[in-house]
Amino acid sequence: SAFSNPDRAVTNVYYVDDESDAGDLYTPCAVGNEANDGLTRFTPKRSLTNLLRAYDLNAGDVVYIDAGTYTNGTTRITNQDADGRPGTNITFQGPTNGSVAIFSNAGLNSGFILSNARNVRMRGSITIRGYTNGIKFPISVSTSNEFRGLTLISNVINGIFMNGTANDANR
Asked: With contact defined as beta carbons under 8 Å apart, do 53 and 72 qualify?
């Protein structure tokens, strides 16, 4: 399946995929593996957490998260891992072909923690379920973050938890 890149000012492109090709849009001929570098559609990382451990994302970077189920616990996005600029977000792009990227856990922790994250955009068909908090903003200054097309369901306490007044997000 071919796809077109809707982002024009992309600095780097990264890929994450589960261990299956079912429903894949971005990595149809490969499966995720932590030994992969995540830099091509043929060498996707297995988890978003390990991709963020391997690379510091910059304004304009895009991470394509392919269809599948991801059960790797909490993904932390901090300004040290990913720090966009106004008008030039870092984008975490889920599938757009009717498939879903599902982040799932057994009620532990938070699915995503954004701490001092700025200009981070998550969009596409991404479901976050089964965590204590689907997305958590701890006491920090996280600004201009955008979430579109996400489904936050069956999280124990909150879909989105914002602690403190210096956090903002658009949906």
From this structure: no
